[in-house]
Amino acid sequence: MNLSDINVGEKVTVCELKASDSMRRRLLDIGLVENTPVECVGRSPLGDPSAFLIRGAVIALRSEDCKNILVKR
Amino acid sequence: MGDKVIALAGNPNVGKSTLFNALTGMKQHTGNWAGKTVSNATGRHKNYIFVDIPGTYSLMAHSAEEEVARDFICFGKPDAVVAVCDSTCIERNLNLVLQIIETGRKVIVCLNLADEAKRKHIDIDVGKIQKRLGVPVIQTVARDRKSIEKIISVLDENNAEKGIQIEYPKVIEDAVQELLPHLEKYKTDISKRWIALRLLDGSLTDKIYEYISADDSLKETVRSMQNVINEHMIVSSIVRTAEHICDGAVVYNEHKYSPRDKKTDKILTGKFLAYPIMLAMLALIFWITMEGANYPSALLSEGLFFLQDKIYAFLTWIKLPTLLCDALVFGVYRVLAWVVSVMLPPMAIFFPLFTLLEDAGYLPRVAYNLDKPFKCCNACGKQSLTMCMGFGCNAVGIMGCRIIDSPRERLLAILTNSFVPCNGRFPMIITMITVFLVGGGIFSSVLSALIMTLVILLSVVMTFTATKLLSKTLLKGVPSSFTLELPPYRKPQICKVIVRSLFDRTVFVLGRAVAVAAPAGLVIWVLANVMIGDMSLLSHISAFLDPLGRLMGLDGVILIAFILGFPANEIVVPIMIMAYTAGGSLTELGADALKTLFISNGWTPVTAICVLLFSLMHWPCSTSLITVKKETGSIKWTLIAALLPTAFGVISCILVNLISKAFGA
Q1: Cβ separation of B373 and A25 shorter than 8 Å?
Q2: Could you tell me the pLDDT band of residue B351, with boundaries at 50, 70 and 90?
Q3: For chain A, which ranges sit under pLDDT 70?
Q4: Residue ranges of domains in chain B
Q5: Contact B483/A34, CB-based, under 8 Å?
């Protein structure tokens, strides 16, 4: 399961980052490492990107990028 | 005692610049949208020189701004680093703090926005955090004098604590232990352990070699040891350490994403209300800007033109030749005064309003709402913000493109920025609408507002078209990844907003505009007053341009007015009037007189529509182009920035003209 599969209000934990290079670094910068809890808190009006609560901050990510973040419930 | 250099570091949006202002009394702009802390701003407090470096999440730099930050902390030899954190999300901020501590610099940690944390019922055990980090930790509220005193007194104490050492997995620790002896002979002010780590992960090899002037044997050793560790292992260890430091020291008694923010976001980014609210917000800003600018504009121009007579009298009194007096006063001064009086008030109103929205935290939501259409054009959602800034002034919008990380997407935003009409073009557009397209009557103002909205929507559509076109041709590429922080809503500091936006944006742009307007004034005057035969040079040129103008549904005068309006779009209509009346200097006319003049020169509603289209799409003004050149550093892209909208404008004008001819209008 990846981060783009979860619904608004759902809470999951990160298992693996498949993103590479700059995106990987960005994700690591915002504290998205293994075992980080993530909650989907909203979607933008056109359905993409979505907003996630990550370590106390709300961060918007595009669904393409979410596909590279594997999560578990 | 000599001066000490103190770097001010921190994540974006943690109140770093506000703290810097409070420390140094400087009016530096805050907020991470206008690309403000691009280079390092410096200011002084007692014997400390504070350097405000760009906001960054990590020292493993990815963007140009972050590189500036990292290079200063690591290689800029600061005497100490004040690491500013957002108290409402300490754990995430510690990522950067730990990396800074690791460099071996003297670090003081400021848990800023303490008031906000209190309001959100976050309990912070400062003592515990200080003990775990091993460096001084203080709580601050940036706008509070006591906080400033606290920072200074800790700096005065001048403790030499080294701070926590991050523990890495055994592979890394072993490699570090193996490499450290090879570094022994080098003398440096940064931590050897940090140097060893960076050499091992290969992220900064060349810069470090240069900094410590490494010899070949070290380089050889490093080469044989690289690739043992990867960045992910390092970052995970740092994040774990941060987790451990906050464990039990930071307690959230309330949901981290406050219910109030959640509710606000439901409305402002909700399916149904997001776009209507955005449009309404934009319309409101335009309305306030235009209504509010009328009076000060009139006052300013009255004052400046009153001065014109005085200056003329003075110049004749010191016996300057009449010709020179005329050129200086009716040429240079008049155009200058014109530009200032029509440009300054709307910008002085628009930008504070815009900054207010930025301060409140609304603008990132706009980018969030609009990301999808931009993604479809292979561009970045943040382009919507630079577009909005473009409504105020394209030059500012182009500068604002610095917020976009990917160089390709940034260029897309820069090159298409002038497709949205700036404040300078609004009066011309409104004139066209009110004079030609809307009759009198009760509904006229509603109708003109409606047409205005259509014009703006058209400009947005054209921006998308141009962006898409570029991303399919000159700037091919896939959309890069996108992370956008939606910060908590904050109450804007109204007074500071006004001062800051005035100084940072308005005065700056005005300066650039004035620099071009003065020589342009002279050129315009010469063209209008030098006679060849029985016609002025201006008339000759406009006669020459007439066939091309006619093809585009315009005429020669309109074309030359746009060309001479290069320094500022505000003077296009005055130049038209000057040329039609064969006058020698810029003039203004009331709506009715304007209509009569235009009609007697063969204008039809189609002419007005073509002028409207061409005012939306032609070469950007000189100030914008100078800014494009500055931002891209390339003449090629500057040329494209000029040619692209011009091509769009010429083609659409010709199309409208031909179609209307075909229908016999």
Answers
A1: no
A2: confident
A3: 20-22, 25, 29
A4: 4-157, 170-228, 274-430+465-514, 531-662
A5: no
3-state secondary structure of B479: coil
Contact present, B67 and B204 (Cβ < 8 Å): no
Residue B477 has pLDDT above 80, yes or no: no
CATH ID of B4-157, from 3.40.50.740, 3.10.450.40, 3.90.79.10, 3.40.50.300: 3.40.50.300
Alpha-carbon distance of B379 to B358, in angstroms, equals 21
Amino acid in position B403? I
d(CA B101, CA B133) in angstroms, rounded, equals 9
Q: Does A63 touch chain B (CB under 8 A)?
A: no
Which of A26, A44, A53 is facing B369, going by the closest CB pair? A44
CB B67 within 8 A of CB B61: yes
- ipTM for the predicted complex: 0.93
For residue A62, the distance in angstroms to the closest alpha carbon of chain B comes to 6
Cα three-residue angle B507-B508-B511, rounded to 5 degrees: 80
Q: How confident is the model at residue B35 (pLDDT cuts 50, 70, 90)?
A: very low
Helix (H, G, I), strand (E, B) or coil at B80: strand
Instruction: Kindly compute the dihedral angle of the four CA atoms of residues B405, B408, B413, B414, in this order, to the nearest 10 degrees.
Output: 100
CB-based contact B257 A53, cutoff 8 Å = yes
Say which amino acid occupies A68: N
* Disruptive mutation site among B166, B230, B368 for chain A (greatest number of A CBs within 10 Å): B368
Q: Biggest alpha carbon distance in chain A?
A: 30
Q: pLDDT tens digit string along B597-637?
A: 999 999 988 999 999 999 999 999 988 999 899 888 889 99
